[in-house]
Amino acid sequence: AQASTFSTFSGANTLADGFAVPLLANVGTGSDALKAAEAGAEGVGLLRTEFCFLDRAEEPTVDEQIAAYGAVFAAFPGKKVVVRTLDAGADKPLPFLTNADEPNPALGVRGYRTDLTSPGVLERQLQAIAAAEAAHTAEVWVMAPMISTAEEAADFASLCAAAGLKTPGVMVEVPSAALTAATVLREVSFASLGTNDLTQYAMAADRQLGPLAALNNPWQPAVLQLVKLTADGAALASSTTGLPKPVGVCGEAAADPALAVVLVGLGVTTLSMSARALAAVSAVLKTVTLDQTRHLAFTALAAPSATEARAAVRAGLPILDELG
Ligand code: PEP
Ligand code: MG
């Protein structure tokens, strides 16, 4: 039963009531993107551009960048591809951007913050993304990692506009951005929740430390509250600006089928995950209506612990037993 249920994912995911929840893929390279397209991804929700250049001592040239991003766009003609600008630092050091001697790398000059210490790299990257976009038909959205304030979001949007990129967004993975989502989203067109870092920072638990795994769990009700605040803030920004302000999730949480149901119930509109998780997430989402996702989200938020949140939601999703 498992194989046949999983193989039915066709690339246009909906809930049981027909409500569309596009399922996108997290990729790092053109070959990842081809595999994701074969697995039925409706687009790319997170292109981790630093993965193209992890072994590099120096900044890649604009032409090298155009080739790397173009390879991903080519795999998704006419489809959405969300490009994240270089997220260097902490678990993803890039020698040309980050300082290995920082005492607290997770709290250091990483992600968007490297624009403070290495000015110009971000502008050249945006220029390369725009050039790659011009050569392909993919619908390119661009987002910055580690945004903490509305001011940073506005600065990033200006840089995107200067490069001719029309759909700027931010990752919400720092609790301050979740708490101020209504003002952050006034400045940009969309947000994508990075639940890996959002959990790390909400729980003050290094995501790379095994002994802290119980804290580093996106089922923690505190993390779910931050997801809800972000979705609610985006809805407010949408009504004050009259523009859509979609909020996706591109952290590992989206790949857990039961948690994916909760995220949709909290107001998330797209889910992005590693390609191998797409079929199982789709199979479970197909069994619930939007109202049911909201009910299950409420159940999770009200639970006193991550363990109880997960158990209560899973009890409401009988399909999970069938899928094993
Ligand atoms: C995240 O933080 O959830 C995320 C998607 O980004 P990364 O795992 O690359 O930090
Ligand atoms: Mg992150």
TrEMBL record:
<feature type="binding site">
    <location>
        <position position="173"/>
    </location>
    <ligand>
        <name>Mg(2+)</name>
    </ligand>
</feature>
<keyword id="KW-0418">Kinase</keyword>
<feature type="binding site">
    <location>
        <position position="84"/>
    </location>
    <ligand>
        <name>phosphoenolpyruvate</name>
    </ligand>
</feature>
<keyword id="KW-0963">Cytoplasm</keyword>
<keyword id="KW-0808">Transferase</keyword>
<keyword id="KW-0479">Metal-binding</keyword>
<keyword id="KW-0670">Pyruvate</keyword>
<feature type="binding site">
    <location>
        <begin position="196"/>
        <end position="197"/>
    </location>
    <ligand>
        <name>phosphoenolpyruvate</name>
    </ligand>
</feature>
<keyword id="KW-0762">Sugar transport</keyword>
<dbReference type="GO" id="GO:0009401">
    <property type="term" value="P:phosphoenolpyruvate-dependent sugar phosphotransferase system"/>
</dbReference>
<feature type="domain" description="PEP-utilising enzyme C-terminal">
    <location>
        <begin position="14"/>
        <end position="288"/>
    </location>
</feature>
<keyword id="KW-0813">Transport</keyword>
<feature type="binding site">
    <location>
        <position position="207"/>
    </location>
    <ligand>
        <name>phosphoenolpyruvate</name>
    </ligand>
</feature>
<dbReference type="GO" id="GO:0008965">
    <property type="term" value="F:phosphoenolpyruvate-protein phosphotransferase activity"/>
</dbReference>
<dbReference type="GO" id="GO:0005737">
    <property type="term" value="C:cytoplasm"/>
</dbReference>
<protein>
    <recommendedName>
        <fullName>Phosphoenolpyruvate-protein phosphotransferase</fullName>
        <ecNumber>2.7.3.9</ecNumber>
    </recommendedName>
</protein>
<feature type="active site" description="Proton donor">
    <location>
        <position position="250"/>
    </location>
</feature>
<feature type="binding site">
    <location>
        <position position="48"/>
    </location>
    <ligand>
        <name>phosphoenolpyruvate</name>
    </ligand>
</feature>
<dbReference type="GO" id="GO:0016301">
    <property type="term" value="F:kinase activity"/>
</dbReference>
<comment type="function">
    <text>General (non sugar-specific) component of the phosphoenolpyruvate-dependent sugar phosphotransferase system (sugar PTS). This major carbohydrate active-transport system catalyzes the phosphorylation of incoming sugar substrates concomitantly with their translocation across the cell membrane. Enzyme I transfers the phosphoryl group from phosphoenolpyruvate (PEP) to the phosphoryl carrier protein (HPr).</text>
</comment>
<feature type="binding site">
    <location>
        <position position="197"/>
    </location>
    <ligand>
        <name>Mg(2+)</name>
    </ligand>
</feature>
<keyword id="KW-0460">Magnesium</keyword>
<keyword id="KW-0598">Phosphotransferase system</keyword>
<dbReference type="GO" id="GO:0046872">
    <property type="term" value="F:metal ion binding"/>
</dbReference>
<comment type="similarity">
    <text>Belongs to the PEP-utilizing enzyme family.</text>
</comment>
